[in-house]
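batch job 7 of whatever, protein = SGF29 C-terminal domain-containing protein
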Amino acid sequence: MEHLLEKLNHLDQLQKDQDSITEKINEIHKILRFSPEMVDKQVDATLIRLRALYTRAKELCESEVSASSALVGLLDGLLQSGTSAAQRKKIEVGEQKKKRMKSDTDTTRFSSASMRSQLDQATNLKGEQVAAKVKSDEEKDEWFVVKVIHFDKETKEYEVLDEEPGDDEESAQKKYKLPMSDIIPFPKRGDPSSAPDFGQGRQVLAVYPSTTALYRATVASNHLFVPPSSIYLLLFDDDEEDGNLPQRAVPFYRVVPLPEGHRQ
C-alpha cells in the first residue's frame, strides 16, 4: 500500500508540473502578442525558451503516461491477488455461456448491458469535474466546468456544482440538475491516450485559459505534439486580437468533442 501511495504522489506531482509549464507557455504567447518590441530585441532567447518549455511539456507527458501505466499494473496485481480461483472459474464459465446464446438474445442483452454500462459510468463520475451545458436558449449554449455531486439512476439526471465563485454571496455556489445529454466527461488527466484524436482543423469545445468556461475552438496545429497530446494549440471563436486569432495552449484534459448542434 505504501508503494501505491508513492506512485500516486508521483503522478500528482507530474500533473502539477504540467499545469505550471502550460501557464509559462501562455505567458510567453502574451509577450509575443502584446510586446513585439521585446521580441525583436530578444527573439533568439524568447524562441529558445519557448522551445525548451514545449520540450519539457512533452517529457512530462511521456513521464505521466509511464507513471499511469505502472500504477495500472500495480492495481491490476492487487486486484488479481484478491480474486480466488473459484471466482475466476465462475467468470470463465459465465463467459462460455454468453458465447452459446442465440444471436437475437445476444442483441437484446447487449442493449440492456450497454445501458447498464452507461449508468455505471455516470455513477462513477461522482466527485469528478465534467463539461456541462448549464444554460441553453435559441441563440446560445453555455458550457462550464462543474463537479458531479450525484447521479440519479431513476431519473437519469446529474446533480452538479459550479465551484467558480460568483460576484456576490448568493451566486458563490450554484447547483444544477442536468440530463445525461448535457454532460461530457473530460479525458482522464493522467492518461493522454484517453483523449480523442483531434487533428488539425477539427472543431472542439475547450476550456478557455484561466477560466472555467468552455467555448468552440479549432485545432490550430498538431505538429508539435501528435494527438492524443499533452497540449493543444487552439484558435477560439470570437477571440480576435488586432485582427488575428491568437493560438491558445490548452491541456488535453480540458478539450472535448464539439456537441452536435452547438450554439455560441
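notes: The domain at 197-257 is CATH 2.30.30.140 (SH3 type barrels.).
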